[in-house]
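Extended Data, record Protein trichome birefringence-like 14 isoform X3
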Amino acid sequence: MAKPEDKMEERSNNINEKEKEKPGESTDFSDADSVFKSTPELKENKEGVTLSPSTKVCNYAKGRWVEDSRRPLYSGFGCKRWLSIMWACRLTKRKDFSYEGYRWQPENCEMPEFERSAFLRRMQNKTLAFIGDSLGRQQFQSLMCMLTGGEESPEVEDVGGEYDLAKPPGALRPDGWVYRFPNTNTTILYYWSATLSDLEPLNRSNPATNIAMHLDRPPALMRKFLHRFDVLVLNTGHHWNRGKLQGNRWVMYADGKPVEEEKPLDMGLAKNLTVYSIVRWLDSQLPLHRRNLKVFFRTISPRHFFNGDWNTGGSCDNMIPMSGGSEVVQDGSSDTVVESALKGTKVKILDITAISQLRDEGHMSRYTRRAILNTSDCLHWCLPGVPDTWNEVLIAQI
């Protein structure tokens, strides 16, 4: 068997061409309504983001955090239909919520106040899909709270069945959620795919069977419904370790064969293969896509465990915003894997790593609903919180 390392580039460029989907109907993003409120001293560009007269390019990942009395964008006591209780820090014993009162200011452009009605008009008859891990789910829930203002919004329809995401019998939850705003026919989707690899049970008749994790094949739901998406946001990162693979009974495959028959495959290489593979597959699909699909790959969300890891007493007890600084001055991304994979493609980067690295006070920390002694969640974020900014940066680039 050929070594996985030797075939990495070959597999990246040959990702199941037979599974290309039929393109959807034509739509565009030429709506004149801006998603943001303009500020009088700056000129508005076509993306709804204001640039100073002397500025040509906005690097959204370079800038600073600034206090903003208009934050948060929704109440942490509300949004109960959309926000998982485990991430609603206002409902925990946490006492300090100063992390809610900041917004991100890019260096070379303004990102004025988000307006949900303008965004929904901009996304009329369109679908925005998040596909990724639990951090992707946080971004999805954040956007649902932003678009409803945290209100119950009974008019919003659950249309998960249209995307094969109805909850299976006996399952705790479905593999994703899909909601539609009927007034504008705007659809927001989330699908859980922690590694962005296609998962296929090796023996469908045996519930305890191992599962083939195809590193070079995009998730089946993405292949099936890509033609219906107008905006797609991907992420992966924190499931690329042996513990996660073993716990989920995932066995890595490439070219339809197990890749570890002779020796273990480095997890970093496996992740790189998947990221490069899915980016190249999507780049090959974009010219065929009639809906003017825009694809964003979100960079990794940073962990902030200090004095240990998640299972060895690591914690993130700091409650002081920006105690390590408030500014990002670097030009490139801190996530070099994603940044490198996107070069030469039409897939865009949603760079939130360095922005979020400054916000260690915004994690769940020890204030979880199922608080366990000496255990902290320094991976997931309180909502409202940092993922709201990810969505503002995303919306600025749509």
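Summary. The longest helix spans residues 267-285.
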